């Protein structure tokens, strides 16, 4: 692998994502606006949510960026002739997916840090006790969510279908993860359905205050499964031409 | 002369539709080789198989040297700037951007504009520069001048000739017969999934037969007629004009363009 070209590509993708309004909106604007609005409502109506506000808003923002923002960026590459231009000019087929993934990781990590800093200042929210463990949990959650978003983006080339399919993953992530209301309020079937998405495990892991295997391992399993789908899709894209 | 590309018995089908039915062709070192054919003849499929961009069903392809590829349909992310794209792909090819060729293609004029805002011609020039970025031995150009204005077309022709004179082997697919006629050393005509002809333009003319168009301007008017045996037809006509007491003011003999030969070949005339 050409390391220099790869890292230049990652840096370039970060700049392209800032220039592209789609990712800017889904990774920064909407999550931060949602935080500004819902943070005020939650902490006024239910003061006890101050203990979980940072984690809840982070789950919302990361899920939005990974599941709504990343798939269209990937479809732009793999559903169009950009894929052919990359191959024709010497870049490997996985290059586009890897750079979009790493760039989104960076942007969503920055957005999560903004939430971490603003939550206590604006809404008197609790700061996680063990910050290194919190960041590690955040990183694991980001990896799992982004791998799912990447698998969706690589699997659906059609932009119109992609918008609908992304929502199929995003909405249950938000509604069934416990960030808006406790999952104990949900019917058993929906509670079980919620555990199929990274958001539920990520929220639990970030609230645990340490890397507990009971939440960490399911996220690793989701990450591995989504990565396997990505590898298969890339292999298919390579051979189907 | 070394053979840079050898294609033998290439076959490719899309579902039940056989596009290539045993294509054989050879491209020699240092020549400009054109692949001609009507729309849907399989030019792009043939080139993509040679480039390794498309899997083929049967046959054998040998490429000797590093390839630079300008695809017929290629795109880049909407917000990337030409200078960023050039740098990125230069890095992937372990090369430095060639500023001389970039200037010749007029890239500096729009190197800071986002890709989405470039005109079709600017995009094609950028993709050509990207194809050259790794200093390839063989350059494959699919419809290189499509969307270019006259100035851009002439500059590109000049660049292609320079590249050939510099030792590069160039393969191009084109619809523009005038371009092929003025640029190419050898041509191949792809027709119904096979190579109907491969050789020089002179050999093509000999294959399809000489079809002259003669225009005679006399004091009584203008006459135009087709002739295969130019000497006897023209002598007979001139004799008739002389016998009628007329005199010739102007005489033009058109030996037929590559386009006309191509049409005759693909319509099955004189073959």
Task: Describe the model.
The complex is a heterodimer of chains A (241) and B (271). Chain A is built from 10 helices and no strands. In chain A, 79% of the residues lie in helices and 0% in strands. The relative contact order of chain A is 0.14. Chain A has one domain. The radius of gyration of chain A is 18 Å and the shape is globular. Chain A has helices at residues 3-19, 21-45, 53-78, 82-88, 95-123, 131-155, 159-175, 188-194, 198-208, 213-239. The mean pLDDT of chain A is 91. With 241 residues, chain A is an all-alpha fold. Chain B is an alpha/beta fold and 271 residues long. Chain B has a domain at 212-255: Roll (Ubiquitin-like (UB roll)), CATH 3.10.20. Chain B is 34% helix and 30% strand. Chain B contains 9 helices and 12 strands. A 6-stranded mixed sheet of chain B has the order 5-6-7-3-8-9, with helices on both faces. In chain B, a hairpin with a 2-residue loop joins strand 8 (186-191) and strand 9 (194-199). In chain B, helix 7 crosses helix 9. The chains are: A mainly alpha (241), B alpha/beta (271).
Largest sheet of chain B: 6 strands, mixed
CATH architecture assignment name of the domain at 212-255 in chain B: Roll
Order of helices and strands of chain A: HHHHHHHHHH
Topology, number of strands of chain A: 0
What oligomeric state do these chains adopt? Answer: heterodimer
The fraction of residues assigned to DSSP E strands of chain A is under 5%
Estimate percent helicity of chain A.
over 70%
As a percent range, the share of helical residues of chain B equals 25-40%
Shape of chain B: globular
Structural class of chain A: mainly alpha
Describe the global form of chain A. Answer: globular
Give the mean pLDDT of chain A: 91
